[in-house]
Amino acid sequence: MQRRVRLFELGRVFHAGSEAPRETQRIAAIAIGSARPEQWSGPREEIDFYEMKSVAESLLGLSRATVEFRPADDSFCHPGRSARIWRQGRDIGWIGHLHPGVAKALDLPGEVVAFELDVEPLVARAVPRAGEISRFPSVRRDLALVVPEATPWSDLRACLERTLAGRLQDVVVFDEYRGPGLETGTKSLAMGLILQEVSRTLTDSEADEAVQLALAALDRDCQARIRS
Question: Which fold does the domain 139-226 belong to in CATH?
C-alpha cells in the first residue's frame, strides 16, 4: 500500500445557477501520509493543514491579491481544521482536513488534507509595477496582543494595513499562546510591525505614534488589547 500520496487535478466543475448550471475551471489537490519523504535526520510527521496551506499559498500568490482564510463549516471537512478561501470579497475555494467520517467512508488511512480553488481568480491579475525601494532603515516594534479566539489573523492584518497604509512594510507573527493567564475564549499573538518610509528615516516618536494608532484600531475593529 502506498503510504505517501500527492495528487492534483485540473477540470471543469458545474454549480447550480438561478437559470442554468454555472461552469468553472477548478484545481484540486490532496495529500496523505508523511509531510516529507522518509529520511534519517528527523522524525516522521504527518501532513497537516499548514503544510497544505503553504502549497495553496504558492498558487494564490500568482494572483498578487490579498487572500483570507476564514473558518469553515463544510460538512465534508474536519471541524476547526478547515477554512474557506476568500479573494477580494469572493469565496474562491476551500482547504482543510477531510472529516474523519468521510475519510473512513472512502477507506482512506490517516490524515487526509485537500484544497480546491477556482482557477480564473488565480490568473486574473493586474500587471505588476515596480516600486521605489527605500534607502532608509526600517523600524520594528513588537506587540503582544490578547484577541478573541474566533478572530482570524487575516482580520488583524487587514486592520493594520488599513490603519498604517504605506508605512507598514510587513507584519510577522512569531508566537501564539493559549492557556493559563488568559481568559477563556481568548488567545495571545506576538507580532512584529516593520515600519518604513520611502523618503526619510522614521523617528522614534513617529514609530511610537504609528503603534498607538494601530492599537486603537485593533481594539476598535478586532477587540484586541495589549497583553499585560
Answer: Alpha-Beta Plaits (3.30.70)
Fold of 5-123: BirA Bifunctional Protein; domain 2 (3.30.930)
- Counting beta carbons within 10 angstroms of the beta carbon of residue 135, is it exposed (0 to 12), middle (13 to 18) or buried (19 or more)? exposed
Alpha-carbon gap, residue 134 to 68, rounded angstroms: 28
Domain boundaries, the chain: 5-123, 139-226
Residue for grid cell 482580520? 155
84-100: pLDDT as tens digits: 998 877 889 999 999 98
CB 78 within 8 A of CB 97: yes
d(CA 39, CA 27) in angstroms, rounded, equals: 30
Terminal Cα distance for the chain, rounded: 52
Amino acid at 106: L
User: Residue 11 pairs with which residues in a beta bridge?
Assistant: 26
Q: Which residues in the chain show pLDDT less than 70?
A: 1, 42, 64, 125-128
pTM beyond 0.90: the answer is no
* CA distances from residue 27 to 78, 80, 94 in whole angstroms, order as listed: 20, 23, 11
Residue 65 to residue 122: CA distance in whole angstroms: 9
Q: What sign has the CA pseudo-torsion 138, 59, 147, 220?
A: positive
